[in-house]
Amino acid sequence: MPTDASYAGFDRMWADLQPVGRVSSGGYRRFAWTREDHTLREWFAGECTARGLDLVEDRMGNQWAWWGDPDATPGVVAGSHLDSVPDGGAYDGPLGVVSALAAVDALRDSGFQPSRPIGVVNFGDEEGARFGVACAGSRVITGELDADRALRLTDADGVTMGEALKRAGRPASIGRDEDAVRRIGSFVELHVEQGRAMADADRYDQDHAAVAIGTDIWPHGRWRLDFAGIANHAGTTRLEDRHDAMLACATAVAEARGLAEKHGCVATIGKLQVEPNGVNAIPSHVTAWLDARGADEAAVLAMVEELSERAAADVSRESWTPTTAFDTSLAGRLHNILGDVPMLGTGAGHDAGILSNAGVSTAMLFVRNPTGVSHSPEEFAEQADCHVGVRALTAVLQDLAG
Ligand code: GLV
Ligand code: MN
Ligand code: MN
Ligand code: MN
């Protein structure tokens, strides 16, 4: 079990990461294959090699650090991601990576000898903030995202992922990596909670309120909507003569809200690209990205279908993740280890979901978020709760690898 030294190690790693990619909002911009991402990858590699773990990269550049040989016996893996959404919080991703390293320290300090290998992973490009497809790291290695398609994805400056990899000095020969997936006997992703279910759950005693076990992830997807207009002068073009792509887009944003209510789902249009993007020019083209999710797969797809019919746009799907049900027997085992902690589903996507849908036995642990705010600089978890998370993850790894 963790000692004061393990918690101090957690605090030290946490402090190390705070300056990387921090922006004036107080949030983070840590996008795939940028300088900030490189700094984070180097940090992860340094932490792992300092511990004498074997560091390997898979065919998508996800970083794996092993204690033991996963080619002899598939291992127990913990970890998450270090990238962020635009102006994201400090916890989404890094909490899982830092907690996994601290749990490994705690196990080693206690003299624990695993009978199965233990791995720590840093998945790349989980948020899809730069190239649009979330969990690109896990999607490519599991074959869920075709490598050729991934290489052709572009960022807001028109840089393809292939070019970004080249600029980052990475091999462009990315692809499915069955060996990397086969090495994962089970995967446990610890993550900050991204809603307020735990803060609102009052039936649990203090010892059992800070960590929850994940049960499932809502089906979710991203769609691209292209609205065409005609550029013209903002002062001289009569209202009846305009072909304004932004007006069509704004109408669709309002429609999405109404359809989400009708179908009992959630829909978000949070990213736009406008051409020519001038204050005094009527927009000739707007690209909007729709994020749609809900408990019921058919309802989400029906909502998007109806929006596609109503919106004056070309609509194309960029990614889709069906309902993810985590391994119930693994969740039950975690429940036995951790006691009567909350069991929660979530509307947030994770690499854990991609691995689970690819057939890996997978579980998640959530650490309480007192306000529930996430994907925002306000995202927060108490230090004491983070330490409870480290303790829970240590107990889980000890049991699964014992
Ligand atoms: C990723 O965090 C997502 O759920 O969008
Ligand atoms: Mn996220
Ligand atoms: Mn995350
Ligand atoms: Mn996520």
UniProtKB/TrEMBL annotation:
Sorted alphabetically, which InterPro entries does this protein's record hold? Answer: Amidase_Cbmase, Bact_exopeptidase_dim_dom, Peptidase_M20
Residue ranges that the Swiss-Prot or TrEMBL entry lists as coiled coil: none
One family from Pfam that matches here is: Peptidase_M20
What SUPFAM superfamilies would the database entry show? Bacterial exopeptidase dimerisation domain, Zn-dependent exopeptidases
Reply yes or no: does the keyword Hydrolase apply.
yes
Q: What is its EC number?
A: 3.5.1.87
The molecular function GO annotations come to: hydrolase activity, acting on carbon-nitrogen (but not peptide) bonds, in linear amidines; metal ion binding; N-carbamoyl-L-amino-acid hydrolase activity
- Chain sites annotated for binding Zn(2+) 1: H81, D92, H191
Superkingdom per UniProt: Bacteria
GTP-binding recorded as keyword:
no
Q: How is the cofactor bound?
A: Binds 2 Zn(2+) ions per subunit.
Q: Which cofactors, by name?
A: Zn(2+)
Give the PANTHER family listed for this entry.
Answer: ALLANTOATE AMIDOHYDROLASE (PTHR32494:SF5), ALLANTOATE DEIMINASE-RELATED (PTHR32494)
NCBIfam families for the chain: hydantase, PRK09290.1-4
Name this protein carries in UniProt: N-carbamoyl-L-amino-acid hydrolase
